[in-house]
Amino acid sequence: MNKFAKFATILIAGALTVGSLAGCGTSTAKSESSNEILLWGQQTGPDAENAKKTFDAYNATNPKYKVKFVTMKKDTFNAKLATAGRSGKDVPDLAIVASEEVPSWHSQNLLVDWGSSLDGSKVTADAYIPSAWEAGQADGKQYGIPSIIGSWIMYYNKDLVDKYVPGALDDNIVTFDEIEKAGAAAKADGVYSYANSWGFQNYDNLYLQMGGKWLGSNGKISVNNDTSKKVFEEFQKLYKNGWMVPNGEDVTKTFLNGKLVFMPEGSWSLANIKKASFNWGETVVPQWDAKHLVQCSGADQFVIIRSKAARSEEKMKGMVDFMSWMQNNQLEMVRSGANPSSVAMLDNEEYTKMPQSFLLKDENIRKAINIITTPGLSYVNSEIDNRNWDMIEGKADIAQTMDEIQQVAEQKMK
Amino acid sequence: MKKKHQGLWSLLFLGPHMILFILFFLIPAVFGIYIAFTDWDLFGTPQWVGFNNFKEILFDSKSIYHTQFMNGTRNTILFVIFTVPLCVIVPLVIATMIQAKPKLYKLFQSLFYLPTLFAVSAVMLVWSFLLSLSYGPLPKWFGLKINITSTQPWAWVALVLITVWWCVGQNLIIYVAALNGVPVEQVEAARIDGAGNFTIFMKILMPNIRFPLFFTLVTTTIAQFNVYGQPLMLTNGGPNNSTRVLMMDIQNNAFGAGIPTAGMASAMAVLLGLLIMLVSVVQFVVMRRQD
Fold it and tell me: Per its UniProt record, what PANTHER family does this chain match (chain B) (predicted)?
């Protein structure tokens, strides 16, 4: 083998190695040059299927800009959106983000506001549930157009309610007093009256019901207070008396087995609940005071992602047209338990027959919908999820744990 | 001329590995150390802050990063203390038993090695199911009514036993190979001289396999210091952060929710790396002295 052949062999080997490494990178569909709106979502399971059906139906109307929907897991979505958004290259045109994420993405300068592109279109505030529309705002600008509303609600076993707390649902509102009464009456039969399957959802609702405020007098997040303590004392009481499903037990299974009276859960869990062999129903989350209703929810938002390549006016119009079409066509997306965000959907006959429609049918409940977008609360919620059982089970001091959670939120927001 | 040929052939064989080593280890390691001295959100330009990250992590008791580091390091060290001896002794005992070649010893060797082939996520999912209060057979068989993964000391017991079960095969293979290399004459001579099994094990087998043993001790220690998947998936660091190891905080600070604090995460990783180096050096020194 001569020198040249050896050198060439080494070069080829090196090039193959580097080439194979380059091949490891993922390619992302580019949308700037094509007649398509690239939409990223973080839906999975039935939600993803229903969303795809909806966008396929839009494409079937032959719009100038068709929607290409790419869905991925939440972690991947967050990482890819952050990376692409920061670089400004290979970014999607639109992304569906949770309402509480709008301030965070906005603060990282990744979003473009819908601004004047909405002028003269049907996409106006009065076309949406007010709280859902407002959840898309940041610094006085509209960064998100509402998609669907997902809520932390409460499922109940009608037969067990009639047995242990008859009349509790006469006003369709269940209070913590009634949950305690149900727990005391049902305990001897091995039946629970409450469950804590998602810590921060239960905490956020009860905190606001008890009059808690997320921001302190200095305008910064403040949760290490008496209200938080009171919230966890109430949960502790339910747990220590044996009225709450123990930590580690599958809550949905307990409910489906007829061993749980009231189950706070997501409206998105409807498909599971439909398997129940008993009479069941849906209502708002349990209330501290029936006269002061609070019902926390989230409204996914269509946001525009900042791109280095300028989007044409025509494409922006295509995106607004898509939003306008969505107002009347959210039916598929709400089949898995969510509620629509557009007013136009409220009269849809099929939707009004869905069990979750109670949230928007009743004027009082509709007004009680609270979509939280407080900056920094996501840090608190994440910590609550990690630590809530420690406080409930008495393994950690409530005040001290809330101090630590406060410290994390403050430092993360620096 | 012949030397030149050898040089080119060496380059040809080493080249691809060197490229991979430089791209995926050396450059990231040097960059990671640099990042430890900066304030960086992963996307913008890193801002040089000198030793500030290290000062805050080590000395600022009001900082969450100090709390995370102290708690994470403590739990990581506990994990190493609990698992390393078992991950060395258990496979050594099994290897010695296999060495005696009992019936079906090859089957048992394969069975013990099997868990090592599975990814940590798969192992932890299976064990989470087995220990689940609602679905798991183990709490039912043993009549346990507590949630093992959220109650101490059971959470530690579960973490340690599952880790040992998972990684026993790796060292087992090395020990079996090492024991096979022990001269049979030495063992037979000792037996003729009246040595029992324990004496043969301590005086003949152990000295003969001391280098593989030392190798596995160091590699197992390093691996267990980098523990991440087991507590993340089995206990999520609970109860009360008592099984939250340092790698969980490093990952969360760099890639978790919100604005990343990659500089702080890198500084923690550098400190963990220094700790691992220190422990490895101590192990080297002790072993050399004994040698």
Answer: ABC TRANSPORTER PERMEASE PROTEIN, INNER MEMBRANE ABC TRANSPORTER PERMEASE PROTEIN YCJO
Domain assignment present for B67: yes
Number of folded domains that form chain B:
1
Residues of chain B neighbouring A255 (CB-CB closer than 8 A): none
Sequential pLDDT tens for chain B (291 residues): 566 677 888 889 999 999 999 999 999 999 999 999 999 987 778 999 999 999 999 999 999 999 999 999 999 999 999 999 999 999 999 999 998 888 998 999 999 999 999 999 999 999 999 999 888 899 889 888 889 999 999 999 999 999 999 999 999 999 999 999 999 999 999 999 999 989 999 999 999 999 999 999 999 999 999 999 999 999 999 899 999 999 999 998 988 767 789 999 999 999 999 999 999 999 888 888 776
Strands of A27-110, DSSP E: 36-41, 66-71, 94-97
Interface contact flag, B147 A104, Cβ < 8 Å: no
Give residue A224's Cα distance to chain centre: 24
Phi and psi, residue A220, nearest 5°: -110, 160
Reported as a single tens digit per residue, the pLDDT across B148-172 is 999 999 999 999 999 999 999 999 9
Angle at A168 between CA A188 and CA A173, to 5 degrees: 130
The DSSP result for A242-301, as a single string, is T-BPPTTS-HHHHHHTT-BSEEEEEGGGHHHHTT-SS-EEEEPPPBS-TTS--EEEEEEE
Taking contacts as CB-CB distances below 8 angstroms, the residues of chain A near B258 are: 104, 378-379, 412
DSSP states of A101-114? GHHHHHHTT-EE--
The CATH code of the domain at A152-296+374-412 is 3.40.190.10
Residue B275 φ then ψ, to 5°: -60, -45
Q: What is the DSSP letter of B205?
A: I
* Domain boundaries for CATH 3.40.190.10 within chain A: 36-150+298-371, 152-296+374-412
Quick check: A17 contacting B, CB < 8 Å?
yes
d(C-alpha A384, C-alpha A362), whole Å: 31
Is A382 close to B257, i.e. CB distance below 8 A?
A: yes
Cα distance from A2 to chain B (closest Cα, Å)? 10
SS3 per-residue string spanning B11-41: HHHHHHHHHHHHHHHHHHHHHHHHHCCEECC
> B149 at the A interface (CB within 8 A)?
yes
Q: What is the pLDDT of residue A175?
A: 97
Identify whether the C-beta of residue B27 lies closer than 8 Å to the C-beta of residue A26.
no
- CATH class entry, domain A36-150+298-371: alpha beta
Strand pairing report for A36-41 and A94-97: parallel
Cβ neighbours of residue B106 closer than 8 Å, sequence gap 6 or more:
none
- The structure's pTM equals 0.83
Query: Which domain CATH number covers B71?
Result: 1.10.3720.10
Confidence of residue A16 (pLDDT cuts 50, 70, 90): very low
The angle subtended at Cα A229 by Cα A226 and Cα A230, nearest 5°, is 85
> Would B108 be classed as within a structural domain?
yes
For residue A220 the two structure tokens come to 């910064």
Is residue B1 one of the residues assigned to a domain? Answer: no
Residue B164 lies inside a defined structural domain of this protein = yes
- Asked if A319 and A38 count as a contact pair (C-beta separation under 8 A), the reply is no
Residue A365, CA distances (Å) to A36, A296, A370, B235 in order: 39, 11, 10, 38
Distance, CA of B83 to CA of B156 (rounded, Å): 10
The nearest CA of chain A is from the CA of B85 a distance in Å of 30
Closest CA in chain A for residue B6: A6
Question: Which chain A residue's Cα is nearest to B258?
Answer: A104
Our CA-based measurement puts residue B64 at a distance from the nearest CA of chain A, in whole angstroms, of: 6
Specify whether the CB–CB gap between A199 and A267 falls below 8 A: no
- Spatial distance between the Cα atoms of B279 and B273, rounded to a whole number of angstroms: 10
Q: Which residue has the tokens 């949950």?
A: A179
d(Cα B35, Cα B269) in Å, to the nearest integer? 11
